[in-house]
Write a structure and sequence with these properties.
With 211 residues, this protein is mostly helical. The chain has 13 helices and no strands. The N and C termini lie far apart (66 Å).
């Protein structure tokens, strides 16, 4: 019974006997090892007692055993924040944001932190790293765009999109850049993306449409 195991651990922890509490909390995920709920319950208990390394250990075990490297990314980010480890916290929020197509707790927290002076350089650098190269993932591109918008760096956003247009071999990415450039009012970048699409597409009808 997970509740009984948790309570036994609490009794020991309230007396600062964490070495005796830990084995009981570690048993919670083993009750139903195919479910993520037990891992989250155990990690949360460790987190509540400021045993951050134990919380991260349980999250790591959950990711490995359940085959999901982005599992509990938001929670892991919060744990790293508790440890005052800003770099790893942002990495976890990025991991969570990239794993979900659309809004997520990790994405919201990342953008919130990006607005803060002490966190802004870290969010800027790490999202830039994710979107480097000629063919980054669409998720990484969208996240980078959102961060640059949040930082009100329109000039850098234009440079980022322009560089992608020049270098990427991906039609799908060019189509998305074309849409983003249109929304942002970057007409030259939008036209450049369309020109690159004309050169890459093998569909003559699509070439005519783009022209």
């Amino acid at each position: 019974n997970a509740e009984i195991l948790t309570r036994i651990g609490d009794i020991y922890a309230d007396r600062s006997l964490f070495s005796r509490a830990r084995p009981h909390w570690d048993r919670v995920p083993k009750i139903d090892p195919g479910s993520s709920a037990g891992y989250l319950q155990a990690a949360t208990v460790f987190w509540d007692y400021f045993l951050y390394d134990d919380a991260l250990r349980v999250i790591s075990e959950a990711r490995k055993n359940l085959g999901n490297p982005a599992l509990f990314a938001y929670e892991a980010g919060a744990v790293y924040e508790g440890k005052s480890d800003s770099s790893d916290a942002v990495k976890e929020y990025i991991r969570g944001a990239l794993a979900v197509d659309g809004p997520s707790s990790s994405r919201s927290r990342l953008l919130e932190l990006a607005r803060r002076k002490q966190w802004s350089p870290i969010a800027d650098r790490l999202t830039a790293e994710q979107a480097e190269g000629p063919n980054p993932s669409l998720a990484a591109v969208f996240l980078r765009v959102e961060v640059l918008e949040t930082l009100n760096r329109r000039g850098d956003l234009g440079k980022f999109l322009g560089t992608l247009v020049q270098n990427t071999p991906s039609l799908e990415l060019l189509e998305r850049i074309e849409s983003i450039a249109s929304d942002e009012g970057f007409e030259e970048i939008q036209a450049g993306a369309m020109e690159r699409e004309i050169g890459l597409t093998r569909d003559p009808v699509e070439q005519i449409r783009l022209r």
